[in-house]
Amino acid sequence: MVFGSGAHAFKALDDVDVAIRENEFFTLLGPSGCGKTTLLRLIAGFSYPTEGEIRLHGRDIAALPPHKRPVNTVFQNYALFPHMTVSENIAFGLVMLGRPRAEIRDSVDRMLKLVQLEALKDRRTGQLSGGQQQRVALARALAPQPKVLLLDEPLSALDFKLRKEMQIELKRLQHETGITFIFVTHDQEEALTMADRIAVMSSGHILQIGSPRDIYDRPAERFVADFIGETNFMTADVLSCADGTAQVALPGGARFAARVPDGVRPSGQVSIVVRPEHAELVDPGAGAHLTGRLAHVVYFGTDTHYHVLLDTGQRFILRRQNSRNAGAEPPEGAVVGIRIDNGAAQMLKD
Where, residue-wise, is CATH 3.40.50.300 in the chain? Predict the structure, then answer.
């Protein structure tokens, strides 16, 4: 997808090829400007591709205008009609499609029940909370029973607690309606919480597609590992490799096994990632792979983060879930060891 021409041409999407499954909750995840909203607009029909196809159930819809596509969109600002009631907002799309009155009434009643707003059906949208407005926008988009529902960062305006609640609600709605949801977000936690599969995007490219667990535990490259949650990057030397596992050595001499991505034949120096929760603090002499000084201890309620300044000068973050039975933790400034969980290290592609 190219915007402009000549010297001012800008390639917003470059060789994007993705197959989204029917009845799937699919998330496009990436930083601002990576191309995820452009891809959503192409599917919706608000933009037209400079080349390529957009196929829905085998039919190329790239040339169809938005109103002729079986696709609806929920926008970031909801775009509700303030002079209409909740019921009238939900009915609007059906009225524009010329559906019979009885069908409109039944559909509105069904949508009100689905989003749990029956008691507010006669209230104007300006009198609703942010979460209630979002449910109205969802109901309006779902009422015509589209094949695909596009959601462009619809939770970004909500406060933290309400955003958590609506993540569960969105997943419930997708499951109950059986409609394919394509969800755009830059929030990694939203993607991991709701998606069946995630496509991580950067600079107009899709870097990796997989389940939330695959994306988090088996990132294909450095950007994906860095963008999805916290992680520790290290450089190691490959000693040997067999059956998808490499034996590697860190600069300090510690040796352990690291998973090798498919199709990679590692040699020489490689990059290794370890998630903070896949390592533990130990005494420096208790089989530690790394040693250093505990620089900061950060309490997060559910867990505690330990920032260790390694002997090599690098920083390493560990995360431990808090519990009533947790033992005494070392004080800041103490010399500590770090033991990496067996099989937790992941090698990255070049």
Answer: 15-222
